[in-house]
């Protein structure tokens, strides 16, 4: 089973729910936690892994062998990311725009492009609380492109039967979120009953509809805001799987590094129920 | 000499656009003939690499000077390689025509 925890809006409680879901399920199955928020990962603050492996995350970028290049411009033409430009007889490479797709190398009629490794971050692995296997990607500061790291992080292990993979997504509704969602069985959407929470939730529902991924909602800070969230969920027929009431004491405890299930142990059962609901929605169709 | 100016609309009366890579229009002005032509900026619609896409277009137009609010690191590198001069609007530059006048009067920022 592969579950992505996403939200759209930042700060709704993705990591709060994802870490406590992992802890609640750890006694039932092998649980793997993937922190896919590679620009600002924070799952480690709660699950406290001891990292035992660190591997560079590398993309392969073009290097033009200028002495053999005929400056035909084919590589510039095929690069949809504008990572190459042609000035007279020179081809300029912009490494920070390169997605490492290999189109330029593949299309070069003279075969004068070689690919060189360009490290953009690290992939880490270790064991965390309650025997949770913890994976984290970390984008190097000043590098602009998180998606290759997320892709590589998810590829570190293949999904296995009787294993629950939990992917803690980055905020927003952009490429990095789509990369986190790719291939999952279910998206758990953590939101809050505010106009901003609802606005971004609708963006997520659009993405999930395009990707054909079933979803359910956790309403965090339940009790604040207005009814527009509930109305939208009814309209889109999205189930509410859990509610976490607004609670200042909980917020203070989370801020000190404690988890939801540590502060309120009754959420262990609530989150196991939530998982049970997910398995019923997904049916036997795990990928 | 060919100048290219980033603009919000395709005319000399149009407001300049202080964004380079994602401006809607690039107005080419030839100071020798006083003729001008407006092009849609191919960078405007890109999800990434807008500055390089716009810069490539300007390099291909064989312009000598590009005028905008500012230039990002990628576009700057392309212009430096192409030996195209980068000039920036002053605070009082509002229209494309003024940008041309300010260039001729050497008032634009370097």
Q: Could you characterize the architecture of this molecule?
A:
The complex is a heterodimer of chains A (287) and B (110). Chain A is α/β, with parallel strands linked by helices. Chain A has 11 helices and 11 strands. Chain A has 2 domains: 216 residues, P-loop containing nucleotide triphosphate hydrolases (Rossmann fold); 46 residues, 2-Layer Sandwich (Alpha-Beta Plaits), CATH 3.30.70.20. Chain A is 33% helix and 29% strand. In chain A, the strands form 2 sheets. Chain A has a 9-stranded mixed beta sheet, with helices on both faces. A two-stranded antiparallel ribbon of chain A has the order 4-5. The mean pLDDT of chain A is 95. Chain B has a single domain, classed as Dinitrogenase iron-molybdenum cofactor biosynthesis domain (Nucleotidyltransferase, domain 5). Chain B is built from 3 helices and 5 strands. Chain B has a 5-stranded mixed beta sheet with strand order 3-2-1-4-5, with helices on both faces. In chain B, a hairpin with a 5-residue loop joins strand 2 and strand 3. In chain B, helix 1 runs parallel beside helix 2. The model of chain B has no long low-confidence stretch (mean pLDDT 96).
